[in-house]
């Protein structure tokens, strides 16, 4: 059974930090790009950060650049999002996503975690 489990949310005051984790099972984690997305009620889901399957390349949205750090431990089939200097506008439900391109069908294979709430109070 494919699973992406993402505990680690919670409430923190502005300026604080949290670390989200995304533990995978049921598929070959090394083959997948991992992304973190967030969604505020009434807004579209936005990509916050992503990391290549081998962990060598990363992407950050401008809104989190310099504050968030994404990492990936293929040996543990787990990805992390370290969030520092949190702001009230970072409040959202955070989702992890694992995606790869199937080389035969050229379709996307992707999985989503269940979402975890991060609340930053001012």
* Element-by-element helix/strand order: EEEEEEEEEEE
The largest β sheet comes out as: 7 strands, mixed
Count of helical stretches: 0
User: If you average the pLDDT, what whole number results?
Assistant: 95
What portion of the residues fall into strands of 2 or more residues? over 45%
Helix content: under 10%
How many beta strands in the DSSP annotation? 11
Quaternary class: single chain
Structural class: mainly beta
Instruction: Tell me, briefly, the overall form.
Output: globular
What are the defining features of this structure?
four-stranded antiparallel beta sheet; 0% helix; 122 residues; mainly beta; globular; 11 strands; seven-stranded mixed beta sheet
Q: How would you summarize this macromolecular structure in one to three sentences?
A:
Helices cover about 0% and strands about 50% of the residues. It has no helices and 11 strands.
């Amino acid at each position: 059974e494919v699973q992406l489990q993402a505990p680690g949310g919670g409430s923190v005051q502005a300026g604080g930090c949290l670390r989200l984790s995304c533990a995978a099972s049921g598929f070959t984690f090394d083959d997948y790009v991992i992304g973190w997305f967030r969604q505020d009620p009434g807004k579209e889901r936005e990509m916050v950060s992503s990391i290549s399957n081998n962990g060598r390349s990363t992407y950050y949205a401008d809104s989190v650049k310099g504050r968030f750090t994404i990492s990936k431990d293929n040996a543990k089939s787990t990805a992390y999002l370290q969030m520092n200097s949190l702001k009230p506008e970072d409040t959202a439900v955070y989702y992890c996503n694992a995606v790869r391109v199937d080389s035969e069908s050229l379709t996307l294979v992707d999985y989503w975690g269940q979402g975890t709430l991060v609340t930053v109070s001012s």
